[in-house]
Amino acid sequence: SLAHRCHQRSTAMLDVPFLPFCAFLGTLGLLCVAMVGTWCQHWRGGFSLDGSSRTFNWHPVLMVMGLVVLYGAAALIYRIPHTWSGPKLPWKVLHSSLALGAFVLTVLGLAAVFSFHNSQGTPNMYSLHSWMGLGTVLLFSCQWAAGFGAFLLPWAPAWLRALYKPIHVFFGSTILMLSVASCVSGINEKLFFSLKNGTMQYKLLPAEAVFANTLGLLIIIFGVLVVAALARPSWKRPDSDSPDSHQVRDVLGG
């Protein structure tokens, strides 16, 4: 029918090859990291470990690197067609290692902001940004521990993996979106705190505000594209012939 042909044509138009998409996404992620580093170096005075605002500057850089870019890379590992054949264990190890690396960067980013606040006598954990950010990190730690227990420990039963897998996938996307929201609210909060003198007021939209607002938009685009890739059926690893799925069907009587 005409409607069916139109649907096929529109689907074909949207059928972007995965690897070029991945290359674009990787470039976008690196751009986000480069921009947050440039913002902190050029406008916010650079980096140090002396407890000053230059110590704080490690916080946005490490959070964007860890919670957004590296976490997004970890989430997309199973979408790479090369991972669909052969043993799954090496890819599980890579997935969990990238996520662990993201977690380590995130903890260092938290340490930077707490160190800055404590040295300046600023209260911790009073803003919506801080509540959302810490909640995201706590959820991330639970997600990693549960994933490690269910998918990497050899004695985890197949029925438990089958039960937990959709939960793990759901919270993977949820944590990424919470990470993006935390980063964007943090950028906005920093601009409100910093741009309030004379010609540099935020409402006057100085160059720093344009740059940081653009960074926020790029982080949102990165997160949305990762979630879209995770949701795309044709990019999901076919599990029907994997040993895990045979075990699951046997246990569940399938």
Automatic annotation (TrEMBL):
The keyword DNA repair does not apply. Residues 24-231 form the Cytochrome b561 domain. It catalyses: Fe(3+)(out) + L-ascorbate(in) = monodehydro-L-ascorbate radical(in) + Fe(2+)(out) + H(+). Keywords: Electron transport, Endosome, Glycoprotein, Heme, Iron, Lysosome, Membrane, Metal-binding, Oxidoreductase, Translocase, Transmembrane, Transmembrane helix, Transport. It is a multi-pass membrane protein. Pfam families: Cytochrom_B561. It is found in: Late endosome membrane; Lysosome membrane. The chain crosses the membrane at residues 18-40, 61-81, 93-116, 128-155, 167-188, 209-231. Residues 236-254 have a biased composition (Basic and acidic residues). It is an enzyme of class 7 (translocase). Residues 235-254 are annotated as: Disordered. Its cofactor is heme b. It comes from the Eukaryota. InterPro entries: CYB561/CYBRD1-like, Cyt_b561/ferric_Rdtase_TM. One of its GO terms (molecular function) is transmembrane ascorbate ferrireductase activity. GO terms for cellular component: late endosome membrane; lysosomal membrane. Its EC number is 7.2.1.3. Gene3D superfamilies: 1.20.120.1770. Transmembrane reductase that uses ascorbate as an electron donor in the cytoplasm and transfers electrons across membranes to reduce iron cations Fe(3+) into Fe(2+) in the lumen of the late endosome and lysosome. Reduced iron can then be extruded from the late endosome and lysosome to the cytoplasm by divalent metal-specific transporters. It is therefore most probably involved in endosomal and lysosomal cellular iron homeostasis. Homodimer. This is Lysosomal membrane ascorbate-dependent ferrireductase CYB561A3. It comes from Cinclus mexicanus (American dipper). The lineage of its organism: Eukaryota, Metazoa, Chordata, Craniata, Vertebrata. The gene is Cyb561a3.
